[in-house]
Amino acid sequence: MIPELGVFALAVAFVVTLVQSTVPLLGAARGDARLMAVGSAAATAQLLFIAVAFAILTLAYVRSDFSVANVAENSHTLKPLLYRITGVWGNHEGSMVLWVLILAAFGWTVAALGHNLPPSLKARVLAVQGIIGALFLAFILFTSNPFERIVPVPVEGRGLNPLLQDPGLAFHPPFLYLGYVGFSMAFAFAVAALIEGRVDPAWARWVRPWTLAAWCALTVGIALGSWWAYYELGWGGFWFWDPVENASFLPWLVGTALLHSAIVVEKRDALKTWTVLLAIITFGLSLLGTFLVRSGVLTSVHSFAVDPARGVFILGILILLLGGAFALYAARAPALKGGGLFAPVSREGALVLNNLLLCTAAAVVLVGTLYPLVLDAFGGGKVSVGPPFFNLTFVPIMVPTLLAVVVGAMLSWKRGDLAGVMGRLWLAAGAAGLVAVATLGLGGLRHALAALGFALAVWLVVGIAVDLAARLGLGTVGARDCLRRAAKLPRSAWGMAVAHAGLGVVVAGITASAHWQVEELRLLRPGETVALASYAVTFDGARQVRGPNYSAWEGRLVVRDGDRLVATLLPQKRFYPAEGQTTTEAAIHTTWLADIYVVLGKAEEGGAWSVRLYHNPLVPWIWVGAVVMALGGMLSLSDRRHRVGAPRRAARAGSEPSAAKA
Question: Per-residue pLDDT tens for 323-336?
Answer without folding.
Answer: 999 999 999 988 88
